[in-house]
Each structure stands twice: as C-alpha cells, then as structure tokens.
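Co-fold these.
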Amino acid sequence: MTKTDFSAMPCPIARSLGRVGEWWSILILRDAFYGLTRFYEFEASLKIAPNMLTRRLNELVESGLLARKQYSEKPPRHEYHLTAAGRDFRPVLWALLAWGNAHFAPEGIASQLVNRETNVPAQPVLVDAVTGQRITADTYRVGPGPMAGEQMRYRMDFLKHKEAAGDDKARFNPPPNSAPDRIPR
Amino acid sequence: MTKTDFSAMPCPIARSLGRVGEWWSILILRDAFYGLTRFYEFEASLKIAPNMLTRRLNELVESGLLARKQYSEKPPRHEYHLTAAGRDFRPVLWALLAWGNAHFAPEGIASQLVNRETNVPAQPVLVDAVTGQRITADTYRVGPGPMAGEQMRYRMDFLKHKEAAGDDKARFNPPPNSAPDRIPR
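Predicted complex below.
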C-alpha cells in the first residue's frame, strides 16, 4: 500500500501532520523543548529503538523542524536543535497536554502548564489577538483562505448548509468535477 | 516489532497521541467538526480506503472520541458523532491549523480560523484564564503534577538545570533506579 503524502494536501492541518511524520516525532519535539539535544539523550528519555530514532531525527531535520549541529569531530557526533518552525510547534504540544489532562488522566495529573513565577497551573484558553475575544466554536469557524480550492470551499460551507437544512437533510457530496483536494507535485 | 502503546505512558501528550491513533484519525475528527457523520461522507472527503476508514472509525469509537448511532435498520447503517472528549480536541486542530499556515503554506492560505460575524482571520494566542496573562515560553513552563513520577520530575527539572549550568555542561541522564516512565497495565 502506498503511504499517503499528507504534506501534499492543501488543508493546513493535513500538511502539518505530514511534516511531523509520526507520533515518535512529536515526542522527540516534546523532549527538544525539555532541552534534550543529543542522540543518547533522546534514547534515554524515550526508550526508542536506535534505528527508529535515527530515522525520526533525519525526518525532522528534512522537514525543517530540527537543525543538526556537529559537536564532536572524532567520532562525528551531532546535536539536534529546534528551528524557528520547530519552536512554533509548542502551542500544539500545549493543546495536546491540556486535552490529555482533561480526558485521559483518571489517576491524576502527571504534568501540566504552570506559571513560571507562581507555579500555579494555567487554564489555557484561545484568544484572538485581533479582537481580544475568546475563540470558541460559537464565535469562530474555519473558513476558506485565498488559496482554497472548490473542494475545500464545499467542505467549509457544508456545516453552515447542514445547520440550516436540519441534521437529517444535508449530506456531504462534494462537486465531482471540482479541482482535486490534493496539490499536484 | 511490537507497537508502542502510547496511551500507557504517563505524559499527557503521549497519552493523547495514543488515543487519537494515527494521522487519518485526526483528519476524521477534523471532518467530524465540519459536520460529516456518515461512512460515505468521510470516504468522499478523505479518499481513504474503506477498510482503513472502518478501522479508524472503530478505534475512535473505542477511544471514546466518536459515538456510533444507528440511522438505518435495513441495511444497518451508523452515524458517527463527536463525544464531549472528541469535541475538546478542537483546540489541537486549531493549533495545527495555525502552525501549518505559518510554516507550510508557501503558496498562500487555503483555510484559516475566522470570526463568524466579520470573517476577519483570527490571530489565536494562548491566554491563562487564571491570570489573564498571555502564555509564552518565557512566562509559563510544563511542570510536574501531583502524579508525576521520578523520571518525569527529572525530565522537567532538566531544562532548568541545563540553563543554569550552561548549554555544554548538563546532560540528560535520568536516575537509573527511578520508577519507570510507563504505567504498568
């Protein structure tokens, strides 16, 4: 079976997933935020098989999320540092952290976002810096950008259409002749 | 090779990843937020192989993120609706959306978060509802919760230690006799 190339989809969510690659990669990025940089450090933290770790680190470098920096010549050894794009992944990790704590920590909280000064756990909410308004599903929605194709516009209008038509009426049926929802390479 | 069970790790980020299962599952959740509920709707939207879609939908139901609801008896047909835990995944999608747009949309924006009334694109930032303060890496950090084990506390203190010791001094070397970083089942 051919592996689907998520980074060739126009949806920015799909494309982000294509860049991160795999679950292990997300945990490697997490550890990079904890200050880990060297192969054996990631290995000690994640207990991941070395060949898998090598592959994931290479992918993260190719995707532009980690940068390789040599720290020893003999033997050649490298450190891995977050790039600007890698550092911007932090809010995704914070969102996953909050979601995990809210729903999948029945025995109690193991890690949480805290204020550096007071150590009080944060209650993170999304706010629109443009309006100062809290972002909720009632006040904000995902809408098409200038580069949205016909399929994507259809997908985005579907929910509005469905809400108007009533739950049992509207069915998702994108226009068959519309531009494909994948970007040609 | 045995597949690692991420949902058995104490880290809430790892555990969240264990629940979502796989990239396709994230796109299925995305489409559920767009109002899709039926098998053929997800199929039409994602162009995913039917056996793969069946598997992913079943996993999302088992993980408690989607609920199955029968809408036809003959033939038996089901709809898939977001549960409360599933709906709370929305900020993760929004964070992925913003990250994708910031870094992986060189040809322009295809989809974005917009204000429902004005259609103006949002600039989402994280704010702590407790303090009203903007959450950044300078003001907030991930700290241990009451259920943090020794390994996790070590990981969280490492960065502080490293910043104090200077970048070339501190190495990640968790205490070997500490409690394992995986939850026994």
